[in-house]
Specification:
Helix content is about 45%, strand content about 15%. By secondary structure, the chain is an alpha/beta fold. It has one domain: Rossmann fold, CATH 3.40.50. A 5-stranded parallel β-sheet has the order 2-1-3-4-5, sandwiched between helices. The protein has helices at about 15-30, 35-40, 50-60, 80-90, 110-115, 125-135; strands at about 5, 30-35, 65-70, 95, 120.
């Protein structure tokens, strides 16, 4: 079973709810999922909290087969952008999900460096179709 690292903003209740819903869709499609908001960011009251979270997320990306990034919003979340770049530098396949219909006009859908680093999907069903084609490779 392939593992997906789900990179996404996680600072608002609606974002966390969407991330959990997407995680459940990925699990139903046959993937293991590393979801930072639940698998690493649950460290409380520790003076090394940031270091621990960073290292868990780094290991999560390194141990994943595929990175899926939620790209909705006026601009891509900075942490998500970093995770995309790191996974891309490791040669991991990266799929981006952007259900937000805003674009950058003639410049593209998201920042050029992000858009050229991944396969861009505009719906959860399109994302799942791409992932299913990657399951056996």
């Amino acid at each position: 079973m392939k593992t997906v690292y789900l990179a996404a903003p996680l600072f608002r209740e609606a974002e966390c709810d969407f991330n959990r819903k997407l995680r459940n869709e990925l699990i139903s499609a046959g993937f293991d999922v590393f979801l930072p908001q639940e698998d690493s960011n649950n460290i409380k009251d520790n003076k090394d909290r940031q270091k621990i979270i960073f290292n868990k997320n780094l290991k999560g990306i390194e141990n994943s087969d595929i990175l899926v990034a939620v790209l909705d919003g006026a601009d891509v979340d900075s942490g998500t952008a970093w995770e995309i770049g790191f996974a891309f530098s490791k040669g991991k396949p990266v799929l981006g999900l952007r259900t937000d219909f805003r674009t950058l006009g003639i410049e593209g859908t998201v920042n050029l460096m992000i858009e050229r680093s991944l396969v861009l999907c505009s719906s959860v069903s399109e994302l799942l179709n791409h992932l299913k084609s990657m399951q056996s490779t």
